[in-house]
Design brief:
6-stranded mixed beta sheet, 7 helices, Deoxyribonuclease I, Chain A, alpha+beta, 16 strands, single chain, 262 residues, globular
C-alpha cells in the first residue's frame, strides 16, 4: 500500500494547473492525504472516480482544510480531535479557533489509523509559538497516544517544523525563527519520544532532502528548503515501512508530496 501526503496550498489552484491530475496518473496512490485545501467539497472540480473523498474544510472561506482521497474504504472517519479535547479552553487565540479550521482528519482502516494533519505555524513574529506548544502539540500527542492504544497509527501532513539541523538548508541563519525554534522542535521530539518514529529519517538517516521552499528568491530552484512534512508511525509499524520518499520532482505547490509504502 502506497500512501501519499501533500500540502497543495490551494486545491483549486493545483487542479487548475493540472498538477494533481498528473500526479495521480503517474503515482497511482492507494491513499492521498491533502493539506491546505482552501476549499469545501463541491467548490473544486474533482474528478477521480477511483477514490472516495473525505473532506474536513475550514469554516473560513479559502483557508486551511484537509482531505483524504482513498481507494480503500475506511471503517470509519473522525473529524478533529476528540469531543472532550475540543471542549477544553484555550483553542481560541488572536488568529482564530483551530477547532474550526479543518486541521485534523482521521480515517480508520483494518490495521491502522491514518491521521491527516495541518499543524498551525508559529507565525513570523512567533506570536503563536507558545500557544502551539501548550495547546496544539499537547492535544495532538494525547489524541495520537489514545488512538495508538486501539491500533497502530500513521500520522502525516505539514507539521510546520524542521526537527534537526539536517532538515533545513540554512539552520544557522534560521535558528529561533518560525519553524525552527527550540520550542517547536521540542514538540516534534515529544512525538518521537512517545512511541512514534519519523519514517523518512528512519530509512534515510543522513540524507538531506526538503519538502517545502519559499516562493522568494528562487529558493526551490536553488534547493534552499525545509523538511516540514512528515509521516510518523507507531513504533510497532516499523517493520512494515517498506519505503519512504520525498518527491522533489513533483511541482504544483510550494510543498512537494511525501510517501510511505507499507
Amino acid at each position: 500500500m502506497k500512501i501519499f501526503s501533500w500540502n497543495v496550498n490551494g486545491l483549486r489552484a493545483v487542479l487548475n494547473k493540472g498538477a494533481l491530475q498528473s500526479f495521480i496518473e503517474e503515482y497511482r496512490p492507494d491513499i492521498l492525504c491533502l493539506q491546505e485545501t482552501k476549499a469545501k467539497q463541491g467548490q473544486a472540480e474533482v474528478d477521480f472516480p477511483e477514490y472516495e473523498e473525505i473532506w474536513n474544510s475550514a469554516e473560513r472561506a479559502g483557508y486551511s482544510g484537509t482531505a483524504i482521497f482513498t481507494k480503500v474504504k475506511p471503517l470509519g472517519v473522525r473529524y478533529g480531535f476528540l469531543p472532550e479535547q475540543e471542549e477544553m479552553s484555550g483553542w481560541e487565540d488572536a488568529f482564530g479557533d483551530a477547532r474550526t479550521e479543518g486541521r485534523v482528519l482521521t480515517a480508520e482502516f483494518e490495521d491502522f489509523f491514518l491521521v491527516n494533519v495541518y499543524v498551525p505555524n508559529e507565525k513570523d513574529g512567533l506570536e503563536r509559538m507558545e500557544w502551539r506548544s501548550k495547546v496544539w502539540d499537547k492535544a495532538l500527542l494525547a489524541y495520537l497516544k489514545g488512538l495508538d492504544k486501539e491500533k497502530p497509527v500513521l500520522v502525516c501532513g505539514d507539521f510546520n517544523v524542521a526537527h534537526e539541523e539536517i532538515d533545513l538548508a540554512r539552520p544557522v541563519q534560521n535558528e529561533g525563527h518560525a519553524g525552527f525554534t527550540n520550542t517547536g522542535r521540542q514538540g516534534m521530539t515529544e512525538y518521537l519520544s512517545n512511541g512514534f518514529i519519523d519514517t523518512w529519517r528512519e530509512l534515510h538517516p543522513n540524507e538531506q532532502k526538503y519538502s517545502w521552499w519559499s516562493y522568494r528568491g528562487g529558493a526551490r530552484m536553488r534547493n534552499v528548503g525545509w523538511r516540514i512534512d512528515y509521516f510518523l508511525a507507531s513504533e510497532r509499524l516499523r517493520d512494515q515501512i517498506k519505503n519512504a520518499e520525498i518527491l522533489n520532482e513533483v511541482m504544483g505547490s510550494d510543498h512537494c508530496p511525501i510517501m510511505v509504502e507499507l
